[in-house]
Amino acid sequence: MCPIRVRWHVKQNYKEYWRVKIAVANFNYRLNYTQWTLGAQHPNLNNVTQIFSFNYKPLVPYESINDTGMFYGMMYNNDLLREAGPFGNVQSEVLLQKDRDTFSVKQGWGFSRKVYFNAHFKQG
After folding, report:
1. pTM more than 0.70
2. Residue 118: per-residue pLDDT
3. What backbone torsions phi and psi does residue 46 show, to the nearest 5 degrees?
4. Which among 12, 80, 98, 112 has most CB atoms closer than 10 A?
């Protein structure tokens, strides 16, 4: 029950791409989270084109299906999620190529299916 909020927001709808903003906010006033990881399930993660300020690894249990990926901070840049306050968030944008057969906002895929958060914590 860590006090973390994850926002997945479709920021831009280009002709061939979606631009999604992912923001992770820490609402704990006493703890920092280090080496955090964010797992996300989304049907269009097999079409990730570019990640701007997070690291990303696809989790590919089956070669033809990739709907799960791990996002985590870059060392010395945003791998520390600080305690609540003005610096208590990290964010990045993801560029996804459109797959019109499986992903559209009308079908309800503007947001991820599930999101998982895990981190080590230390006193702030």
Report:
1. yes
2. 86
3. -80, -5
4. 112
Q: What percent of the chain is modeled with pLDDT above 90?
A: 33
The one-character DSSP state at 46 is G
CA angle 9, 92, 84 (to 5 degrees): 90
Residues near 24 by beta carbon (within 8 Å), at least 6 away in sequence:
4, 5, 6, 7, 36, 38, 81, 89, 90, 91, 117
Q: What is the DSSP string of 66-122?
A: --EEEEEPPTTTTSEEPPSSTT-EEEEEEEEE--TTT--TTTTTTS-SEEEEEEEEE
Token reading at 104:
């559209």
Domains of the chain, each with CATH number or no CATH: 4-123 (2.60.40.290)
Give me the phi and psi of 31, to 5 degrees please.
-125, 145
Maximum pairwise Cα distance, the chain: 47
